[in-house]
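Hey, sorry to bother you again with one of my protein questions. A protein chain has come my way and I'm curious about its shape. I'm sending you its amino acid sequence along with the backbone structure tokens. I owe you a coffee for this, so here goes:
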Amino acid sequence: MTLRVFKNHALITGLGAFMFFAHGSACRAAGNIETLTKQNVKEFIEDTTDITTTNTQALSPEKIQQYLETHLDKKARFKSVMKYNIPGMPPQEAALSLDKEEFMKSVVQGAEAVDGYETLVEITDIKISSDGEKAFVKTQNTEYATMPVATETGSVENVPMEGVSECTQILLLKKGVIMMYNANCVTNIEFMEY
């Protein structure tokens, strides 16, 4: 089976958004934070993961957009290299770079790009700056989903996939609110034969 993963830019961008924000930002950590701590950074990551992925349907798309508007710095940048391993094909790679507005749009596209999305997030390191206003966070994320993909015959098949991402992020504390400033991720995506 031949899959045309890279013919759909919206699909790549949307999937990239899930990979980024499965690493996240926070409801519990949203209000008047005085200084960043490992605990409120951890809560921020966990809450944003829940809010922006399909693990829960707790918020409407409008509420998710409001949340992102609040918790993404106006100069936020998201970069990812996604490596695709498709059975019977050589590995493929796509680079993705998004600003705040592009990222917010891609979250909606990501919701439409995959079905049955599940994620497991492990925070592997948190370092807080001496002034308590910046955090450097490393995460590893494992994602599972099925994705509708065009085959060489033109039909669409739901293909199971598994992704493993490693991200390095910078979070900022501004006016008592934790904000995502920068994220750099490398994601390996395996499409499964079924």
In short: Residues 185 and 194 are 28 Å apart (CA to CA). Confidence is low (pLDDT under 50) at residues 1-12, 21-29.
